[in-house]
Amino acid sequence: MPPHEGLVHPKEYDWRDSNVELIGTDLDHRVKYQSAATEPAWNNGVIGIESGLYIWRIEDFEVVPWPKEKYGSFHEGDSYIVLLSEKVQSTNSDVDQDQNSREEKEKLVHDIFFWLGSHTSQDEAGTAAYKTVELDEYLHGTAIQHRELQSSPSENFSALFPRLKILRGGVATGFNHVDINEEAPHTDTLLRVFKHPSAAAGRDGVLVHEVEPTWHSLDEEDVFVLDKGDKIFVWQGSKCSPMEKMRAAQVVNDITQAKHVDVEVLAQAEFRSKVFVDYLGGEDLDYSSTTFTCPRPIASTSTSSNPSRPKMLWKLSDASGDLTFTLIKKGSGISKADLDPNDVFLLDAGRGIWVWEGRGASKAEKAMWLRVTQMYVRQHEEAASLSVAKVVQGCEGRFFWTAVGA
Description:
GO terms for molecular function: actin filament binding. The structure is a single chain. The protein is of the alpha/beta class. It folds into 3 domains: about 15-155 and about 155-160, Severin; about 185-290, Severin (3-Layer(aba) Sandwich); about 300-405, Severin, CATH 3.40.20. It has helices spanning about 30-35, 120-140, 155-160, 240-260, 275-280, 365-380, 395-405; strands at about 50-60, 60-65, 75, 80-90, 105-115, 145-150, 165, 190-195, 205-210, 225, 230-235, 260-265, 310-315, 325-330, 345-350, 350-355, 385-390. Strands 2-1-4-5-6-17-16-15-13-14 form a 10-stranded mixed β-sheet, with helices on both faces. The longest helix is centred in the N-terminal third of the chain and has 17 residues, at about 120-140. The radius of gyration is 23 Å and the shape is globular. The termini are far apart.
């Protein structure tokens, strides 16, 4: 490897340039299931049998279990697979028109999220995508598959982790993040605590994101936690919210449980809060007249940011003899009745993209859904940052029906 590769300046990763576009088109289902049956991560006597939350990180093309004590913490240089298995009461069909065929029963519903850090490698992203398809095969094709980007996590993903934290570094980078309880030379750590720009008001809508330890990272609307090793400082921006202050207190509590250090909380309006900026290289700033602003590292995917953009439902069908992709309905009138079990549909719900696969869809329609979705994202730039999820008829779950509006 050339000496300049893998060091401290990883390039920003764009999943649209990766090999995930090829996943699910050329591989035979039998081959994928046989591969899944030999994967130790899935074959532990629990996956597909018991409900729960399970996380793995991609390390050197391997699927490695993520320690439970680290659940909710993700490194921007890595790719992860997250499986949520829930037991739900449902009918034997959610969209069949024959109401007499409905039968109440309990079943295990699976949501698989593969999360791509902004600095993950294409190899890691490709492996995460392939292994997600493999895990779905292991679960007999019943799982809902979600593609999550660090820069714009869906509300569904964020809701899984009340203490979601994004850390710098990663398994393959030259600046791996060091846990606070490991014996290693200390480097200053700056954490930004802010409300998820797409989340509704609530305790689960505040994120923690590690940022560059410089005063340029500060923003008056948020709270920042600076860990200097021997002391922790909390800087409360003049426009921060009570929820952000509360979440920062939780962060500090987590740190002080691992090591006993002094903590000082400073409001921006206090004269002494200048010491916080000094530690971040701002000794020469005119603190009283400086306005601190910095774009948040998480983009908003809320429909409220673009109220003129309506929901759209598209159909992928070869019923005419040729494979076509056509707009079926636009606006607020989309419902379950618009979904035909013989076709594949793409729902652009504004906050995310959903692909619904009918039980009677043809092999060609099932094989082409990912390529069509990639094409759609390329042609609709406003959808480029949205999460993408695929669901099979009868295994929709609450996230999908909420997106439909049913």
